[in-house]
Amino acid sequence: MPASPAHPIRRSLTSRWTAVTLAAALTAGTGIALLQPGTLEPTHAAAAAPAGATAPERQAGPDVGVVQEQLQKLVDAGYPSASAAVTGPDGNTITLAAGTGNLATGEPAPVDGQVRIASNTKMFVSTVVLQLVEEGAVTLDEPVGTYLPGLVTGEGIDGGAITVRQLLQHTSGLPEYADRVAADAFGAQHTFISPRDMLDIALEKPAVFVPGATWEYSNTNYLVLGLVIERLTERPLYEEIERRIVGPLQLVNTYLPVPGEQELRGVHPLGYHLDDAGELKDITTMDPSFAWAAGAMVSTPSELNTFMKALLDGTLLSDASLAEMRTTVPAGDELWPEATYGLGLQSYPLSGGGTAWGHGGDIPGTQTRNAVGPDGTAVTIAVAALPWAIVDPSDEVELMSLYRIVVEALDVILQAGS
At what angle do helices 220-233 and 195-202 cross, to 10 degrees? Predict the structure, then answer.
């Protein structure tokens, strides 16, 4: 969600599902530094290895010790738990977890547990839209008003002037809705809100800029795209994601929650957020309707890797669609000044050279950073809190440090697999 314009980095980063108003309380890092190496399995991660077990030797990809070291740094920095999956070019996957999955019981974090993947949902939605383009149901440079006549309108807002491409790429100028709908994370935790109601809230604001003039991240773009998908397919969005992506890839832990669904379906670490008393509080169970097509999906680190690899190797889209998806505009911030944004897909330069492609996402209780490197290695890291929940949100230096450490871990692990 957007933050104050006085803090451009927070505006850019927190628009990916970070709460706007947080209690200004510093929370000490907690969690047991318990590392649980997984075993190697094709495509999908396996269950945790017995305590003290040694991971099998691998012919390629990062050393397990590198991944362990990076997860340990995240726990030491204050994140209650951290988990990661690394899928090599050959499809083999290692999964590890560190820290405490339940602060009340001290239970260790499960390996490859389900997490809310937040704005990574946008990669799934954009994939569905591009499949509809391939089927002739959608044209990228057609106005969204063609598909949702009379719906996208407001002060300076004209659905006849905003294209589907601009929605996918965050160049539409549509104002953000999430800063009003979910600014109070615990207030919105068990509240259902419909996509149409969220759109009405967004359209009460004027346009941010003329369509195509610049880039600015707005979750409203993907709210509208979700409505386009449902209008054209005459089916709910969760069904289309299941039918077109989840089912064909045999992803058993990946889904868009159905309306009203609040509990995670499988084994998972608890996600934590800062309450009004300045304490970390479990926020795992929530109604994610406020995120919907912009950020409500659930997956595991290993299955998110499977999806990203299938997206980028042409399993889900044609070469022409992938070329469109990877046509980008500048979208840099303090973490990645040279980052760019395509059609629901971001690119990041790696410190050792080369470019990684992925997305990432923030939602109260979970932060994910994930990408596929130049050699085809996919990495997903998930931590069980947002930075604002474990450091004083007014301390810009510490806040940036907590964001940066996850990004740096992703960079290190991706390059270790090269």
Answer: 140
